[in-house]
Amino acid sequence: xxxxxxxxxxxxxxxxxxxxxxxxxxxxxxxxxxxxxxxxxxxxxxxxxxxxxxxxxxxxxxxxxxxxxxxxxxxxxxxxxxxxxxxxxxxxxxxxxxxxxxxxxxxxxxxxxxxxxxxxxxxxxxxxxxxxxxxxxxxxxxxxxxxxxxxxxxxxxxxxxxxxxxxxxxxxxxxxxxxxxxxxxxxxxxxxxxxxxxxxxxxxxxxxxxxxxxxxxxxxxxxxxxxxxxxxxxxxxxxxxxxxxxxxxxxxxxxxxxxxxxxxxxxxxxxxxxxxxxxxxxxxxxxxxxxxxxxxxxxxxxxxxxxxxxxxxxxxxxxxxxxxxxxxxxxxxxxxxxxxxxx
Length: 343
What we know:
alpha+beta, twelve-stranded mixed beta sheet
């Protein structure tokens, strides 16, 4: 084949590729981009303070979808995704995408609500009681302008007592949480796509059901705006009088409007997908079966101490550790100060 003929063939192939590319046009939707950062400070009973960042990244949102690309995250402080990963959202589900592992963790909010309740009800040896729940909502008037927009300021105050008993651990404390919100007026396409997480309501069997239900009802009084800044102070006082204070701030900055490529909201097709909702339901079924089996044991076997064997002691220790982590996660979630508020 002559050089001229090869050139003609190459140009023809390139032209065909361009034609195919042009046949699949990009789909754009009106939306916004902004930076979001959640930071905090903890002061322990000795008075020692420590600053930290929970999560920061760049959000891309439309009226129906959202994506948050993470550039800094701390799993220890409650971040759901690691640096370099991202979150995807639609009105019914959320996906945590890990490019490093080529995995996607997917869950629907309905599955999450049911699974949380089932697991809380069937977790062996765990007893959590929440009492004296009081949630107060206040309108504080106009807030300072942020991102070139006027804001309205609101405050939600939560007070309750929590008693937790699991294996060898007992924890009793009084909780006092004050959350201030700077709410901007609703704009088409400007939404916090990760908002519904804060409105997940465990079913009636959960100890947190009353607290979460009253808090969600209070938050609904703020209307359809979006929180562009929140400031949360959480004070926990143990039954020994020891006091720990957490302060958390969520801020939206660098807000820009413009068309958004819908392809950003499509997860990679070659990643492994793990359905957390299905796994959570399966775990709750297994836990319920274990409870039924234990209940059917002979009376003399049931009378044996639950922690008499090394394996049971180790299991109880792990359960206590997990319960402590769950309690910390609840505080972090409150400390997010509206990040997961329903739009």
